Amino acid sequence: MDKVYVVIGTTGEYSDRNEWPVCAYLSEKDAQARVGELENLLRLHGANSDAPGLIYERRDQLKKIFESIDPDFEIDYTGTRYYYYPVPLIEDR
Question: Shortest CA distance to 25 belongs to which of 8, 9, 39, 4?
């Protein structure tokens, strides 16, 4: 069975955890690459630093940076993480 690889963004923890779909790929390699790109961009902008106050100060700036590649981008004191999840592809019958 074919699969689609859905890239997921996540922030928060416990009951404040928020997850959202970012995009999907037919290739696992492409999904892995997108997760890597997003994680690198987060590191480049210090979005997953150990300074939660810095993250809050830069929240709007980070949203603008990510808006074209992750329109639903969110971030809180835990930072933002990305992963991908394989989902069965069911074609119309």
Answer: 4
The yes-or-no verdict on residue 93 having pLDDT over 80 is no
DSSP-assigned letter for residue 76: B
Q: What is the pLDDT of residues 7-18, one digit of tens each?
A: 999 998 888 899
Tell me the β-bridge partners of 25: 5
6 within 8 A of 21, measured Cβ to Cβ: yes
Helix (H) or strand (E) holding 23: strand 18-25
pTM summary value: 0.86
How far is it, in rounded angstroms, from Cα 34 to Cα 14?
26
Give the CA-trace dihedral at 59, 65, 72, 76, to 10 degrees.
-20
Q: How far is CA 86 from CA 3, 24, 50, in A?
A: 6, 9, 30
What sign for the dihedral angle of Cα 88, 29, 36, 41? negative
